[in-house]
Design goal:
- This protein has 415 residues and is α/β, with parallel strands linked by helices.
- 47% of the residues lie in helices and 13% in strands.
- It has 17 helices and 15 strands.
- Strands 4-10-9-8-7-5-6 form a seven-stranded mixed β-sheet, sandwiched between helices. A four-stranded antiparallel β-sheet has the order 11-12-15-14.
- Helix 9 links the parallel strand 8 and strand 9.
- Helix 5 crosses helix 10, helix 7 packs parallel to helix 8 and helix 12 packs parallel to helix 16.
- It starts with a helix and ends in a 5-residue tail after the last helix.
- The chain binds pyridoxal-5'-phosphate.
- Homodimer.
- Keywords: Amino-acid biosynthesis, Cytoplasm, One-carbon metabolism, Pyridoxal phosphate, Transferase.
- Belongs to the SHMT family.
- It comes from Natronosalvus hydrolyticus.
Length: 415
């Protein structure tokens, strides 16, 4: 892949783009929310549709010249409907956060009540953190995971729903390694007459492939990101029943956004098309098998996993029992030096802070895209253990770095 046109006019940006490409080729991307899209998705996102204004929806635009914008958006919608079995899909949200914003804006008034998972327990900023507009415009109460088991504390969720009487309950998480019981949360929402928003940002691809149970048809609203476990390029999506279709569409545009990013919607169309192929099913299954192998192997190395393992694409390691003097930040930094890129993460019952947390989160979507299997994941777990056991030992970092180089060379990305 070259960036010749960029280089002709802007060598500084071309250098950075090539640097990033090389970084991705030569490191192990284990940030659980990241993936590598196909060349086809990259091309679609880099297409002339970036030039096009298409405010409105297919067949009802506020601008002329929308023939191909309409075609592309309709393809994205049709494919998403086929993938998820949703009655209504809006593919215009610029990101998962904007998708959530649209649901709140459509269904809530300022001051209404949101019940969601605490950020340090695996929730997301857009679920009501005080630093996000959601935490400032709405009244937020938060449930937690059981700090003993690491599983969602559904009983606490039910108690809080009864006492707090929320207008909407948010499920779906950023750092939760277990299957979510959508029906159980829906029952609680029904009991207190609240809407239920299931935010599948992380597991969009797993749900599309049927590897994780689907909240579509159960929850009132399902939102997702299109660049995490599904490889459709950066963006967001909202799914709902016909009943709420108009509310959601007008909350996305004109409620919260202007012109849709048509080039990104083209990426979504291509990525959803790829996800409809049988080999995506195999990919999603392998992603989970790889996470399970990674978790088991890390456990063998003495690491403590929140919830004891995983059902999905990520593991959350609590470093406190095994490495009480190493923070998630220390581990993240040493691992990056060795070419393994993941993030320090808060753990349930966090005793440090979000800036210097006690855990690390590691995901397998990107490595699985590169062709890594369970054996490779066991090797990666060995490498992670060597670094975290000796984060200040330069010779260890150097030797792990050369093993990472070999793994990357064996599994090239955009060659
Ligand atoms: C990643 C994520 C989002 C959306 O993130 P964007 O970066 O805005 O796409 C929303 N909810 C959860 C639970 C997430 O993990």
């Amino acid at each position: 892949m070259d960036h010749d046109h960029v280089r002709d006019v802007d060598p500084a940006v071309a250098d950075a783009l090539e640097g990033e490409l090389t970084r991705q080729e030569e490191t192990l991307a284990m940030i659980a929310s990241e993936n590598h899209v196909s060349r086809a998705v990259l091309d679609a996102q880099g297409s002339a549709l970036t030039n096009k204004y298409a405010e409105g929806y297919p067949g009802a635009r506020y601008y002329g010249g929308c023939t191909y914008a309409d075609e592309v958006e309709q393809l994205a919608i049709d494919r998403a409907q086929e993938l998820f079995g949703a009655e209504h899909v809006n593919v215009q949200p610029h990101s998962g956060t904007q998708a959530n914003q649209a649901v709140y804006f459509a269904m809530l008034e300022p001051g209404d009540k949101i019940l969601s998972l605490d950020l340090t327990h695996g929730g997301h900023l857009s679920h009501g953190h005080p630093a996000n507009f959601v935490g400032q415009f709405y009244e937020v109460e938060q449930y937690e995971v059981d700090t003993e088991t690491g599983y969602i504390d559904y009983d606490q969720l039910e108690r809080l729903a009864t006492t707090f009487d929320p207008d909407i309950i948010v499920s779906g998480y950023s750092a939760y390694p277990r299957e979510v019981e959508w029906e159980r949360i829906q029952e609680v929402a029904n009991d207190v007459d609240a809407y239920h928003l299931a935010d599948i940002a992380h597991i969009t691809g797993l749900v599309a492939a049927g590897v994780h149970s689907s909240p579509v048809g159960t929850a009132d609203f399902v939102t997702g990101s299109t660049h995490k476990t599904i490889r459709a390029g950066r963006g967001g999506i909202v799914m709902t029943d016909e009943e709420y279709a108009d509310d959601i569409d007008s909350a996305v545009f004109p409620g919260g956004q202007g012109g849709p990013l048509m080039h990104n919607i083209a990426g979504k169309a291509v990525g959803f098309g790829e996800a409809l192929e049988p080999k995506f099913q195999t990919y999603a299954e392998q992603t989970v098998a790889n996470a399970v192998a990674l978790g088991e192997s890390l456990t063998d190395h003495g690491f403590s996993l929140v919830s004891g393992g995983t059902d999905n694409h990520l593991v959350l390691v609590d470093l406190r029992p095994s490495h009480p003097d190493t923070t998630g930040g220390d581990a993240e930094e040493a691992l990056e030096e060795a070419g393994i890129v993941l993030n320090g993460n808060t753990v349930p019952g966090e005793t440090r802070s979000a800036f210097n947390p006690s855990g690390i989160r590691a995901g397998t979507p990107a490595l699985t895209t590169r062709g890594f299997d369970e054996d490779d994941m066991r090797e990666v777990a060995d490498l992670i253990a060597r670094v975290v056991d000796a984060p200040d030992d330069d010779s260890v970092i150097e030797s792990v770095r050369s093993s990472v180089d070999e793994l990357c060379a064996e599994n090239p990305l955009y060659k």
